[in-house]
From TrEMBL:
Belongs to the CPA3 antiporters (TC 2.A.63) subunit G family. The keyword Protein transport does not apply. Pfam families: PhaG_MnhG_YufB (PF03334). This is Monovalent cation/H(+) antiporter subunit G.
Length: 122
């Protein structure tokens, strides 16, 4: 087996596992009961699935320029997804869209009770 065949086999395995993780994320978004659980299901397996797909694409393309761009995409995804989901979670707690009975610990309860969320556009 040559290096190209081994790289293609690794790429195929990464594509399959990444697609499986994306499927798990989609099922979690549809099946979980509340907003915070759905956000967790969308973030965790989706980011790992994207990383695996990008790794598989790097093994398939085998060009330094393309691998550099794939690394940048992976880093930006890793930096922006947790921040975006954190801000969405805070906004949903402030807007009262979180089911309080499903939370074990709510560190934002004190902050959210003092804040009045404006309704509608200014």
């Amino acid at each position: 087996m040559s290096w190209a065949q081994a790289a293609d086999a690794i790429a195929g395995a990464c594509f399959l596992v990444g697609a499986f993780l994306a499927l798990i994320a989609a099922i979690g978004i549809l099946r979980l009961p509340d907003l915070l659980s759905r956000m967790h299901a969308a973030t965790k397996p989706q980011v790992l699935g994207l990383w695996l797909v990008l790794i598989g694409l790097g093994f398939r393309l085998r060009e330094p320029g393309a691998i550099g761009i794939l690394v940048l995409v992976a880093l930006f995804q890793l930096l922006t997804t947790p921040v975006a989901n954190h801000m969405m979670g805070r906004a949903s707690i402030r807007a009262g869209q979180v089911r309080e009975e499903l939370l074990v610990v709510n560190d934002l309860d004190r902050v959210a009770s003092d804040h009045q969320e404006p309704r509608g556009a200014p």
